[in-house]
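Below is how a single chain appears once it has passed through the pipeline. First comes the sequence as given, then the structure the pipeline wrote out for it. We keep one example in the README because the format questions we get most often are answered faster by looking than by reading.
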Amino acid sequence: MLIITLNPSIDRTILVDQLIPGAEMRARGVRSADGGKGVNLARALTALGVKALSLTLKDTVPAVKVRVNTTVVDLAGSCTRFIEPGPYLSAGDWKKVEGFIVRHLDGARVLALCGSIPPGAPDDIYARLIRAARCKGILTVLDSSGIPLAKGVKAGPWCVKPNREEAQDFFGFKIRSTRAVRKALQMLAGYGMTRVLLSLDEDGLAGFDGQNMFLARGPRCAGVTVGCGDASLAGFLAGHMRGASFQDALRSAAAAGTANVGADIPGGITRAKVLAEFKKIKMEKM
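Resulting structure:
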């Protein structure tokens, strides 16, 4: 599996007693780890025993400055995130990046395109990579937002995994009721995808394989949720690679997402914890 992160980050978590705007606060602890959605996905897949080659913008342009995303967590479990935009590259640099990725497609079974893109990046770069992978018979997975998501979806990847907010921005309607969830899944599948996942935060994880719709629900857990969506995608892909049914792969996705809650680093799950959570996931046919 080849995983691409065009806007990698250093994810920094600061622990405080209470976040008070405008006040000087002393940190109880600080944690840092390499991040970005694709990096988190690769970390979670590795924990689940799936081999993945993770490439980031840094692999193509070594001198690029990696952004720092900061999460402040207080004792009540409240999380406040500060997301930097990422570096600016020239059009010529982006041609090199795209060529570099295309050269690495040979031999891959699945290509995962993850996260945001930095300022100045071609907003159709995911769409172009999806089409390039399809020409080589490679399944593509898209997990992004905004214009890159919209253009990428229209290129017809094999699988897409937006969260509720990203899907609402894409479609322009609220996704709160079961009817709205079904409508969003059907509309996404209408672009040619045969695997559609829709993260509904505390309401669970919905999925559609073109024939059946399911909702996977796990127990509600308190804690930092950064990277839960990436862990969920890892659980789904690990299930698919093992030959699991769509329903079981979706259940694995929900279990991995739940296992990530409160993890020291995003995507820092363990196979044992995912298996324990798998037993607690309730599946409903929609």
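Residues 2-285 form a domain with the UDP-N-acetylmuramoyl-L-alanine:D-glutamate ligase fold (CATH 3.40.1190.20).

See the next section for the split statistics.
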